[in-house]
UniProtKB/TrEMBL annotation:
Name under which the protein is recorded: Histidine phosphatase family protein
Species this chain originates from: Paenibacillus plantarum
UniProt entry keywords in alphabetical sequence: Hydrolase
InterPro entries on file: His_Pase_superF_clade-1, His_PPase_superfam, Phosphoglycerate_Mutase
SMART domains reported for this sequence: PGAM
Segments traversing the membrane: none
Length: 193
């Protein structure tokens, strides 16, 4: 069976400001870098065969921390990018309401659909399990992509909790289905202010 570790990138200034990041390439902030370092220390003694990441800087940088500690190459793939958010990228809720009104989310503002983003994530993971059978693979990506992909793969699990920055979720593929081994774990951040 193949085990997949799904990790959300570390914190950015736009996360703190509650701005929609989408595919805008926003770097980790100082706290996000600390989170990534703590995550890499957690991963140091875990066995993983491969690391993949979104090609956006915040995910690449998070993955690179793990790769450096484990002396592993990080492979990037555009399919692991965050949801494309069209005209709302870079905006806060207040800015969206001011510009488009209370019903802004009902407008066609060029945002990728949930089905499209889940299809990207599932497609990538299916390719990983075919390419790396019976191995352990880390994937560093983004909140919406990971959440929507997980909803598709493990609809039988309670995964409503918002994924935290640098959280670790582990899923295992058996012959006929996926099962969740760990969800949204951030024990490595204990004590971080």
């Amino acid at each position: 069976m193949t085990v997949i570790g799904l990790i959300r990138h570390g914190l950015t200034d736009w996360n703190t400001e509650r701005r929609i990041q989408g595919q805008t390439d926003v770097p980790l902030n100082e706290l996000g870098q600390k989170q990534a370092e703590l995550l890499s220390q957690r991963m140091k003694d875990e066995h993983w065969d491969y690391i993949y990441a979104s090609d956006l800087g915040r995910a690449r940088e998070t993955a690179a921390c793990i790769g450096n500690v484990k002396q592993m190459e990080v492979n990037t793939d555009q399919r692991l990018r965050e949801m494309y958010c069209g005209q709302i990228e870079g905006t806060t809720l207040e800015e969206r309401v001011a510009k488009w009104g209370e019903d802004w989310s009902q407008l066609d503002l060029g945002v990728e659909t949930h089905q499209q983003i889940a299809a990207r994530g599932v497609s990538f993971i299916q390719e990983v399990i075919e390419r790396h059978p019976n191995q352990k693979v880390l994937i560093v990506s983004h909140g919406a992509l990971l959440s929507l992909t997980l909803m598709d793969l493990i609809p039988h699990e309670d995964i409503e909790e918002h994924l935290h920055n640098t959280s670790v979720t582990k899923i295992r593929h058996t012959e006929s289905r996926w099962e969740c081994l760990q969800y949204n774990c951030i024990v490595h951040l204990d004590g971080l202010e």
